[in-house]
Write a structure and sequence with these properties.
Blueprint: H1 13-31, E1 38-41, H2 50-53, E2 55-61, E3 79-85, E4 88-93, H3 105-108, H4 110-117, E5 122-131, E6 141-149, H5 170-179, E7 184-190, H6 199-207, E8 212-214, H7 218-226, E9 230-240, H8 251-274
Parallel strand pairs: 1-4, 1-5, 5-9, 6-7, 7-8
Antiparallel strand pairs: 2-3, 3-4, 5-8, 6-9
């Protein structure tokens, strides 16, 4: 394995950020950018959003950047694209890594830390999730208001105490509502996966106040908050797990929903980023 594709081991926060700074330097060199205004991480099936998000400028293979490994989950593309959204330069990761792929929390947060190290002060996280509410429909985008981290992991190691009261920036959520006044908000429960929840687990999460359940966002958000960036989370409902008479959750069907809605979601992100 080459130096540029080494997996980030369990390290302290300072070392993880130093590794991200190295990756940021390589990203800027490969894309010819002086810096980035925002970083966007696209979730499962969202890769098609990048064409509607903005004008492409340059791109690089994720695995060629220090500390990165290519994502292995279906619906994730191992590419980072430099994109213009109006006058803003945005680094768009077309895929992410997850805990369930066997990686640690530092690896999961590496893309976000790299984007912030490259100058981004705004982080936009997207993903697909199952709905825990009867009034959320499959194919509907939801702005994440808060999260419940049930992964038993954190990208922070050591006495790095970070307040998460406003981890999902109220300012960015207001901008999202301005871009789409009909958009709803919800609480995202982050689990390790890759298995889907049992009926008892689903009921427990709903009772605990969760509206969505997925396998991403939380660790990236914690890392972004520690580095002082604002975070906007947008999750697409790709399954309904509240219907007691539902059929078994089909991962291919969930991926199909995300791919079908990806272009429209790219348009939504474009509208939000233009308003920053």
């Amino acid at each position: 394995m080459s130096e540029s594709t080494q997996v980030i081991p369990v390290v302290g926060t300072a070392e993880a950020k130093a590794r991200a700074a190295e990756a940021a330097g390589e990203l800027l060199s490969r894309t010819g950018a002086d810096g980035y205004d925002a970083v966007v991480v696209l979730g499962s099936g969202w890769a098609g959003a990048v064409d509607a998000l903005g004008a492409p400028d340059a791109e690089a293979a994720i695995g060629d950047l220090p500390g990165f490994v290519a994502p292995t989950a279906a619906g994730h593309v191992p590419v980072v694209r430099s994109t213009w959204v109006g006058a803003k330069r945005v680094a768009v990761f077309l895929g992410r890594t997850h805990l369930y792929e066997g990686h640690g929390a530092a690896q999961v947060a590496h893309a976000v830390r790299t984007g912030i190290s490259a100058g981004a002060r705004t982080v936009v996280l997207t993903g697909s999730a199952a709905s825990l509410r009867v009034d959320f429909s499959v194919g509907q985008p939801i702005v994440v208001r808060d999260h419940i981290n049930l992964t038993a992991a954190s990208p922070l190691i050591g006495p790095d105490f970070v307040d998460l009261t406003h981890a999902y920036a109220p300012r960015l959520r207001a901008i999202a509502r301005d871009a789409d006044p009909s958009i709803a908000e919800g609480v995202y429960a982050a689990v390790t996966g890759p298995q889907f929840g049992t009926p008892a687990e689903v009921a427990m999460l709903r009772t605990a106040g969760a509206d969505l359940i997925g396998t991403s966002m939380a660790l990236e958000t914690i890392a972004a908050a520690e580095m002082g960036a604002e975070v906007l989370g947008v999750s697409l409902v790709t399954a309904d797990v509240m219907d007691p008479g539902r059929e078994a959750v089909d991962p291919e069907q969930m991926l199909g929903v995300a791919r079908e809605r990806a272009h429209a979601m790219g348009g939504l992100l474009n509208s939000i980023l233009l308003r920053l």
